[in-house]
Amino acid sequence: MSLLRPLVLVLTLMLAATATAAEPPKPPQVQLQSVQANFFQEKHLKILAQPITSRGIFAFQAPRSLRWEYLYPVRTLLLVHEGSMKKLIEQDGKLVNDPGIAMDSMHLVLEEITNWLAGRFTDNPAFTASFPDEETIVLTPKDAGLAAIISRIDLHLQGRDGLIDSVIINEGPDTFTRLTFSDAVLNQPLAEKLFVTP
Question: What's the chain's Rg over C-alpha atoms?
């Protein structure tokens, strides 16, 4: 009987280790209060030999302020602050209001990016979030109508602070948009006017 006790103890420890290893990764704990960075966007379509590319800069201030500015090929600015969203586009050298914000995949992503930068990966009930590892979040739409626009979003984080390294928006067979971020400056004070004025 005494010989069985060590065996039972070893089996118990092995089962406990297996149960711990099988636990799914948890959402990353994000500590960002603000971030400013450059971004590079590639739109891949099956019918195009080369992707359509755009470049720009963005700034985020917790909890939900965002300045997203395309500098190339057409200057376009999106301002999100205190629940309001404003889009401006350059015409004749000046930024003017663009009231027609198209409901496309990038528009949906820009609405969500303030949540992601603040670590709120599960806030939108339209998506199911899964966490394959500590640096990857996969968002899958629950609704068939939304899935017709976006089939899946992959967020890749850079390290443990929750800074997003890249986003891949899968829009259908052989169609996806990739955003890659660089030169990030973290947790520096940002003026409110950055999110309300061009």
Answer: 21
